[in-house]
Amino acid sequence: NAGVTQTPKFQVLKTGQSMTLQCAQDMNHEYMSWYRQDPGMGLRLIHYSVGAGITDQGEVPNGYNVSRSTTEDFPLRLLSAAPSQTSVYFCASSYSNWGRKNTEAFFGQGTRLTVV
Amino acid sequence: DAKTTQPPSMDCAEGRAANLPCNHSTISGNEYVYWYRQIHSQGPQYIIHGLKNNETNEMASLIITEDRKSSTLILPHATLRDTAVYYCIVRVGSSNTGKLIFGQGTTLQVKP
């Protein structure tokens, strides 16, 4: 059981370049989300999805796009990278109905992105 | 979602119980208390959650006060591997979103 898989683990981009961070889960979870974590800070929600075909914005969505064409995949796109997007990015997935058993979120190991 | 307040840092001796407090004085009746931890910049890891009753699993115990305005995460026998940032989060149980709103958390340092 792979859980939540993020690729790549590390990436360096030049300002203005675009790229896609990949996230895949094999647990048939309805919910998937993307967070960023800057040094010394907690995680901040970028975008989330409650199911295939449905996405919504989180706390810090500017500069990022997402889509959810399948249950398994939830890619995060940086349209024109900026140094302010240098961060560690985490993808998470979970079942619905928060509070019941087995509804905890599972996180990937992160993608460390540097924009120069 | 209710806001949580945690001390920024705590120390604990190896082998002793680590008691991590969390204040959530504005919690609503249908909001659950969740605890996650993050070890050395890895992805956060779920620990435990509860509504109003105390909960225990293989990792920890969660004690929620009767008025539900605060809770304590207990690691019964802390080891060096428990050194991490611990996050207390409250979530609406019936919400159909997957959002987690993280605060600053408590950095727990377990010392030999």
Topology of helices and strands:
The complex is a heterodimer of chains A (about 120) and B (about 110).
Chain A: E1 4-7, E2 10-13, E3 19-25, E4 31-37, E5 43-51, E6 54-57, E7 64-66, E8 76-78, E9 87-94, E10 106-107, E11 111-115
Parallel strand pairs in A: 2-11
Antiparallel strand pairs in A: 1-3, 3-8, 4-5, 4-9, 5-6, 7-8, 9-10, 9-11
Chain B: E1 9-13, E2 18-23, E3 31-38, E4 45-50, E5 55-56, E6 61-64, E7 70-75, E8 84-92, E9 106-111
Parallel strand pairs in B: 1-9
Antiparallel strand pairs in B: 2-7, 3-4, 3-8, 5-6, 6-7, 8-9
How would you concisely characterize the structure shown here?
The complex is a heterodimer of chains A (116) and B (112). With 116 residues, chain A is an all-beta fold. Chain A contains no helices and eleven strands.
Detailed description of the structure:
Chain A has 116 residues and is mostly beta strands. Chain A has strands at residues 4-7, 10-13, 19-25, 31-37, 43-51, 54-57, 64-66, 76-78, 87-94, 106-107, 111-115. Helix content of chain A is 0%, strand content 48%. In chain A, strands 2, 4, 5, 6, 9, 10 and 11 form a seven-stranded mixed β-sheet that branches. In chain A, strand 5 (43-51) and strand 6 (54-57) form a beta hairpin. Chain B is globular, with a radius of gyration of 13 Å. In chain B, 37% of the residues are buried. Chain B is an all-beta fold and 112 residues long. Classes of the chains: A mainly beta (116), B mainly beta (112). At the A-B interface, strand 4, strand 5, strand 9 and strand 10 of A face strand 3, strand 4 and strand 8 of B.
